Amino acid sequence: MTTIAWPERRADIITALSILASLRPHTPTSWPGLTEAVHWLVDDTFWDQRSPHNDVGTILGDANEADAITATLDPLSAILDELGPTAADDDYLTHPRWHEVTHAATGAHQLMTGQPPARPEH
Hints:
Blueprint: H1 7-22, H2 34-43, H3 63-83, H4 89-93, H5 98-113
């Protein structure tokens, strides 16, 4: 695995993936939640505008991790584009494609950590 230049950013990505993997509709969430997960995964990385492959060595360890992030971002971005930035969390979580997000986020988390995702405690 490549040496990671920004381990703190990587930790944020791993936390975001854990959140996305564990969020369920109609379930109260505490901080961090969907907003923070999207912020860490999309806003902080600009992966909605450029490939995660550009961050191998800075945030991601290899091309497999970049592919797993892309697999998570594809359905997530489609949902965000369709519903916009101000929809209620449950609107995102009940979207017909949300299961794609949770499935891909679970796989990406496991790839990056070797562990199944657990809801982070803060």
